[in-house]
Design brief:
By secondary structure, this protein is mainly alpha-helical. It folds into three domains: about 50 residues, no CATH class; about 35 residues, no CATH class; about 90 residues, no CATH class. Helix content is about 55%, strand content about 5%. β3 and β4 form a beta hairpin. The longest helix is centred in the last third of the chain and has 31 residues. The mean pLDDT is about 80.
């Protein structure tokens, strides 16, 4: 699987499955089937399709691997809810340290860390992972550094385009919710 190039059939930067053989991993095989049935789609389209109903399967896999613990709780004391606290915070601390090195200390991030920063930037939540005030930075400075990394050369243009499209979709949804909320409060 990959992105179509200049010498491939179809539009440039579309997702293509070159080898449809099963991987033996149920989650990856399900994803491969979705991608194979939506050949020549934009990466942003596939992200939405692949994300559907995936959270529970991944949480369950992380729990079976000992990364997370399955917990039961209640929202507002009324509604049952699953909680997935970490079994060992070591991995989280390591990832957070890599983010701090890239965003605060301005070291060159690994491709994986850069991808995570790009997603955090797209969701506008860098400051929820790293408190900029703890490092003498403003939210704007932290966001600016995340933007530099997100726009960097860590991924292909098609992947960066998918992240930009996701950012635009998140912004549009937030604007819609704000507009509906404002209208509801003015008519109530």
């Amino acid at each position: 699987m990959g992105l179509s190039g200049e010498h491939d059939v179809g539009k440039l930067g579309r997702v293509v499955v070159w080898h449809p053989a099963p991987t033996g991993d149920p989650v990856l095989d399900a994803a491969l089937r979705v991608i194979a049935t939506h050949q020549d789609s934009k990466p942003s389209t596939l992200i939405r399709l692949l994300g559907k109903d995936l959270r529970h399967a991944l949480y369950a896999r992380l729990a079976s691997g000992g990364v997370l613990h399955v917990g039961q709780g209640r929202i507002l004391g009324l509604f049952p809810a699953h909680r997935w606290p970490a079994q060992d915070s070591g991995h989280e601390a390591e990832v957070r340290q890599q983010l701090i090195q890239a965003l605060v200390q301005e070291s060159t991030p690994s491709e994986r860390t850069a991808a995570l920063i790009a997603l955090l930037h797209a969701l506008r939540c860098e400051h929820k992972i790293i408190n900029p005030g703890d490092y003498g930075l403003s939210r704007r400075q932290l966001r600016s550094r995340a933007e530099q990394i997100a726009d960097g050369n860590w991924a292909s243009e098609a992947v960066r385009t998918a992240i930009r499209e996701m950012t635009a979709a998140v912004a549009a949804a937030a604007n819609f919710v704000a507009a509906v909320s404002a209208r509801a409060s003015s008519s109530g």
